[in-house]
Amino acid sequence: MTASGESSEVARVYRAPWRIDVTVRQGVPRIVPRTELARVVVGALVAAEAPAPGAVGLILTDDAELTELNELAMGRREPTDVLSFPLFPPSAFPVHEGQHPSVRPAHAGPAFITPRGRRAELGEIAVSVERAIEQARAGRAGQTGDVRWSEVDELRLLVVHGTLHLCGWDHALPEEGSAMRALENSVLGRRWERALG
After folding, report:
1. Could you tell me how far CA 105 lies from the centroid of its own chain?
2. Is residue 54 within 8 Å of residue 18, measured between CB atoms?
3. From residue 115, how far is each of 20, 90, 108, 135, 153 by CA, in Å?
4. 13-25, pLDDT tens digit by residue?
5. What total number of domains does the chain contain?
6. Is 3 within the bounds of a domain?
7. What is the pLDDT of residues 69-128, one digit of tens each?
8. What is the CATH number for 130?
9. If exposure means fewest CB atoms within 10 Å of the residue's CB, which of 39, 105, 110, 154 is most exposed?
10. Would residue 101 count as lying in a domain?
11. Kind of pairing between the strands at 8-15 and 18-25
12. What is the pTM of this model?
């Protein structure tokens, strides 16, 4: 149940060695099958070299919930398209291109310690399907906000983007942002330029 008392549908999707817990809030349009979104999450986990076995929560919701979460997490009372809530610091994941050296601790121990046979819970991603649809319809989609493509493509991008944030990726620095966009392209198996024009 959500805070407002509405029900949600939860499905566990297993794509060995990962488990993706997909929650769809009541009234949220289902524009992409849960199994496809789980496949996209797994693609991003593999690309980011996340620990296996692992688990991720994916919540498909609306602007109202993302506005609430954005205020709580970021101090901004406005809707956003995706938020990630990682349970491990960026330093727990492999070093990647463009990552600022200050993210790496001087004496890093084992990053993921879980009981044998247990999955590492990596965190949760919340995506506003409402925002994904609006951005795609308005031609404000893609990594640069000026891409015209389908609602399906926009939702898939947001899921990949959120998953990479769980795995220690960021785009605050230009070098890391460029590397993150390239990795998103690779995971999605397409070039954004094909969606333009």
Report:
1. 24
2. yes
3. 19, 21, 20, 42, 37
4. 999 999 999 999 9
5. 1
6. no
7. 999 999 999 999 999 999 998 988 888 889 888 876 655 555 666 667 788 999 999 999
8. 3.40.390.30
9. 110
10. no
11. antiparallel
12. 0.89
